[in-house]
Backbone:
């Protein structure tokens, strides 16, 4: 095993030991994952949960449900997630594209790269959102990179977030970890958890499992 592979697995195992399985993505159906991935942009998960509940109550958490509403009415239902007009438009774009491509079942049969290109072609769907959808809704092995990933790995001196592009960081994980959907899902979720518990903007290094095991040498 190469040094980097060993280090990435070591981090994963320590975080898993510390926090346990995170059970991501918290959704009842793959379609709910899709909706959640759009709603969660720049907001807390608590707000997303609220919006999803409201959509369920109003029977519009489905392709047909979203299609039948106009952007203004959909935006009213998801107000609690912020940027609701933009997100309502994005949800409609996403659903329209799903239908154009033949639905989730048809899209699920595509190769990961092809599926990714189709998702990225939808207005308002960036790489992090597309990859979250591919990993958690379509269950294909792609590593999701977010601000938390950048922050933690930069502090571990494994990358320089200012210099590396999204896909370079994604590839770093994918080339040094087994291509395993379950591992990728859990790893991303654990990094998010760690960034919230310890590796915050202003880090709380005391009690951090990564410093206790000499993985992190940060001096904050
Ligand atoms: S020791 Fe501090 S900087 Fe390093 S990973 Fe832990 S919380 Fe982050």
Residues:
């Amino acid at each position: 095993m190469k040094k980097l592979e060993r280090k990435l697995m070591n981090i994963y195992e320590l975080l898993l030991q510390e926090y346990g399985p995170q059970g991501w993505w918290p959704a009842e159906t793959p379609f709910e994952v899709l909706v959640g991935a759009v709603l969660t942009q720049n907001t807390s998960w608590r707000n997303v949960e609220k919006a999803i509940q409201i959509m369920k109550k109003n029977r519009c958490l489905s392709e047909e449900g979203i299609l039948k509403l106009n952007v203004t009415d959909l935006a009213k239902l998801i107000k609690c997630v912020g940027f609701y007009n933009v997100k309502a438009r994005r949800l409609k774009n996403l659903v329209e594209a799903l239908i154009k491509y033949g639905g989730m079942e048809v899209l699920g049969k595509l190769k990961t790269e092809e599926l990714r290109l189709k998702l990225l072609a939808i207005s308002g769907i960036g790489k992090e959102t597309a990859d979250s959808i591919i990993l958690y809704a379509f269950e294909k092995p792609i590593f999701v990179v977010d601000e938390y990933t950048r922050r933690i790995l930069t502090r571990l001196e494994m990358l320089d977030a200012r210099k590396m592009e999204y896909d370079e960081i994604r590839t770093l994980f994918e080339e040094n970890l087994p291509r395993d959907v379950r591992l990728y899902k859990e790893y991303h979720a654990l990094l998010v958890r760690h960034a919230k518990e310890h590796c915050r903007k202003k880090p709380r290094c005391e009690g951090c499992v990564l410093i206790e095991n000499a993985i992190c040498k940060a001096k904050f």
Observations:
- The mean pLDDT is 95.
